[in-house]
Specification:
Shape: globular
Order of helices and strands: HHHHHEEHHHHHHHHEHHEE
Largest sheet: 3 strands, antiparallel
Helix content: 55-70%
Number of strands: 5
CATH superfamily of the largest domain: Fido-like domain
Number of helices: 15
Oligomer: single chain
Mean pLDDT: 89
Distance between the termini: 49 Å
Structural class: mainly alpha
CATH architecture of the largest domain: Orthogonal Bundle
Number of domains: 2
Length: 348
């Protein structure tokens, strides 16, 4: 059985390149707090966009999808889920919203993980319990041929493994000699190797990543979708995870590939935050909020979707800004009348 021990993360044992990246991210985090001051309306808009994109893309990674027409109403709570896929999408949105609102009162534990899993699966008939039979991750070719089987912890050992992982996490988290940011990707790798649930392990790992980032003060995950960055280059994501799983059961693995990947994704997210905030600083009106939504949501959205994401903006303002953007060639219109949807020009 794998031995959970994060004491190697003491600063003297981590490469200088990794520590330089961590120092830059700490600087990003501090600057973000300054940029966020007195810009509540901008942040609310960015948060709503990120919630939609994170929910869509974290589920898409697992092949769980619904139509563009259904997505925003489903996440905003204006539509009930139809079918199992929409039930899982709705649960993810609710769980992510719960983490954003309550991260400071959630103590990472066996019970809190099961509670979050219960929210994720709350619209399905899946019980909030650890797996009751063994499972494995199977890679297949397009024609269905098994390419690789990734071993996971047997179900009879899950309780012990989760307990040991959490004990080691808190031992490291409370050690002043550790860097808590690079503890997060190590925890995520171990969670995925345990694979404690029959379904939803990948999505749970990304929800836990968001929770732990919040708790370390890296709240960019509230305003920029890390899940979208992951989904945009899945090969790199899976390569990093696979690179950190080799020899895991024999205690011969290294977390380095996923640490480097995780820090890179976080860096890109802060860079996007800076770009979008810089663009918003010069724009104060409600029309600019509409513009920001349409240009930054990488999917067609309807006027009703925008109204749901920007409840403080009137329908007439939304209509006027959409017309202006259409006339300027910034966006294109798909469909007509009430079914019309809008997307940034060149994105589809």
């Amino acid at each position: 059985m794998h031995i959970f021990d994060y004491r190697f993360l003491r600063e003297r044992s981590v490469s200088m390149e990794v520590m330089n990246r961590v120092a830059r991210l700490e600087g990003f985090s501090q600057r973000t707090r300054v940029l966020s001051m007195d810009r509540e309306s901008v942040l609310q808009s960015m948060e709503r966009i990120a919630l939609v994109m994170s929910t869509r893309d974290s589920n898409a990674i697992e092949g769980i999808r619904t139509t563009d027409e259904r997505l925003v109403p489903l996440i905003e709570g204006n539509s009930k889920p139809k079918g199992h896929s929409e039930a899982e999408i709705k649960g993810y949105g609710d769980c992510l919203r719960h983490i954003h609102r309550n991260y400071d009162s959630i103590v990472l534990s066996r019970d809190s993980i099961l509670e979050l899993y219960g929210i994720l699966m709350s619209y399905t008939d899946v019980e909030s319990v650890f797996k009751t039979r063994d499972n494995a991750i199977v890679d297949r070719s397009p024609d269905g041929k098994v390419l690789r089987v990734h071993e996971t912890v047997p179900h009879l050992d899950v309780e012990e493994a989760v307990g040991d992982m959490l004990a080691s996490y808190w031992e490291a988290r409370n050690d002043d000699g550790m860097n808590n940011l690079i503890l997060i990707p190590c925890f995520i790798v171990d969670f995925l190797r345990i694979h404690p649930f029959m379904d939803g392990n990948g999505r749970m790992s990304r929800l836990l990543m968001t929770l732990l980032l919040h708790q370390e003060g890296y709240d960019v995950c509230r305003y920029v979708s890390l899940e979208s960055k992951i989904n945009s280059d899945l090969d790199s994501y899976y390569d990093a995870l696979e690179g950190s799983e080799v020899g895991w059961f024999e205690n011969e693995s290294t977390y380095d590939p996923f640490i480097e990947y995780f820090l890179g994704i976080l860096f890109l997210s802060y860079r996007e935050y800076d770009r979008r905030m810089a663009a918003a600083i010069g724009r104060r009106g409600k029309s600019d909020a509409v513009r920001g939504v349409v240009l930054n949501v990488n999917m067609p959205v309807s006027k009703r979707d925008i109204m749901g994401m920007l409840p403080e903006v009137s329908e007439s303002t939304i209509s006027s800004e959409l017309k202006r953007m259409l006339d300027a060639g910034e966006i294109v219109k798909k469909g007509s009348t009430r079914a019309a949807r809008y997307i940034r020009a060149g994105r589809g």
